[in-house]
Amino acid sequence: MTYCVGMLVDRGLVLMSDTRTNSGVDNISVFRKMFTWQVPGERIITLLTAGNLASTQSVVSLLEERTKAPEERDNTLLTSPTMFQVASEIGSLLREIIATRQEANGIRGRDRFTASIIVAGQIRGMEPRLFLIYPEGNFIEAGRDTPFFQIGETKYGRPIIIRGYDPTMSLEDAAKLLMVSFDSTLKANLSVGLPLDLMVIERDTFEAGHERRIAHDDSYFQAISSSWGDALKEAFHSLPDYSFYQGD
Amino acid sequence: MTYCVGMLVDRGLVLMSDTRTNSGVDNISVFRKMFTWQVPGERIITLLTAGNLASTQSVVSLLEERTKAPEERDNTLLTSPTMFQVASEIGSLLREIIATRQEANGIRGRDRFTASIIVAGQIRGMEPRLFLIYPEGNFIEAGRDTPFFQIGETKYGRPIIIRGYDPTMSLEDAAKLLMVSFDSTLKANLSVGLPLDLMVIERDTFEAGHERRIAHDDSYFQAISSSWGDALKEAFHSLPDYSFYQGD
């Protein structure tokens, strides 16, 4: 399994992914699920991937190949004029890869491969944008009403994002919120695992603002993880006490 | 979907269930998923059900029928000498009902009906006990290491129980903790809905200690729901701030 979140705030984009892949509990590995391309000062684009690893790696490898072949006619990531076109192109690629593999294996219905991709970024002259691409190749865009996307093991870490999100929050606070959301997920589900990758894209900078791999020995993440338990308990006790006799 | 939790603390058992059933989002209904039988002063047994509603209602109806027929030879709920035997009997009943229905419909593999039941209670002379019964009819028992069971839509509300649970907590606090867990789930998932049913079984009383239906207009639940958002935000801000420059 996987857990990735892409979040849009007024000041930019904050993205986080775990790195665990598993095929059964006795076959776990570390794979990067966050990939960034940039033309400094002009554009930065980050992908977060979940689902069938062979499919998402194929998408990323093809995109990567294209960035390295300057004569390649549809060098999507580096030349597309809009983020919408980037998302659209990645969607086609994902759909095609899944479809080809399924047809080759005669796979249908519920056994189909599945994968989804979060695409985030900003191109000069335009707003930061955040998309969620489905295995069918179509996609949706985040906005004021739904300012974040989660993929993979999304449920454990959702309540805290719903409660903690604020569009005006600082990028540091947004990163902290994602750490708490990931910590809640890590505590409850073995299929999501450290290290985590964090990427912060500050609005109108067109470059990676802050990039970090959070490993087991990361002292800040450890502090969040250990103090969140106490903070939650305090929050819990700050709520009005329940009495069996009230209102009866 | 459904969300039910059974929790064992030193002072007894606390149980909560929602009441929403849905078959698609345009066909939702309210059904009770919590059922209690008692012989005051001697035993109290509560069931929480999740999964295929026709199957769990069958189990409950059969159990109920048997309590009303004094000549019925295996009047499990009211005469079984131990909670283990109660769980075992309910397990057989559940397995049988599911198997019969599947065979009659030629259903196999992943399309099978599924349902699970939490059984909680205490019989005089013995400890309070808590079981989780699987559709296969077998079951597990809660203990010190895993003192609570969740069924249905379990993930959203799990992190707060993991963080907030303490075996020495009062029954009032245990009820409050379940309300927070349900509130987190209700906020994130439409398939879990009010009203909620709460049952508190105080150790060695052998009767329903506190029973309550929490409806939309329940002022305590409203207070929890509205103050939990603020309490969480405060907890979040009490954590050490993240800085992009630390440790770099």
Automatic annotation (TrEMBL), chains A, B:
CDD domains: proteasome_beta_bacterial. One of its GO terms (molecular function) is peptidase activity. One of its GO terms (cellular component) is proteasome complex. Coiled coil: none annotated. GO terms for biological process: proteolysis. InterPro entries: Ntn_hydrolases_N, Proteasome_sua/b, UCP009120_prtse. Keywords: Hydrolase, Protease, Proteasome. SUPFAM superfamilies: N-terminal nucleophile aminohydrolases (Ntn hydrolases). It comes from the Bacteria. This is Proteasome-type protease. It comes from Qipengyuania spongiae. The lineage of its organism: Bacteria, Pseudomonadati, Pseudomonadota, Alphaproteobacteria, Sphingomonadales.
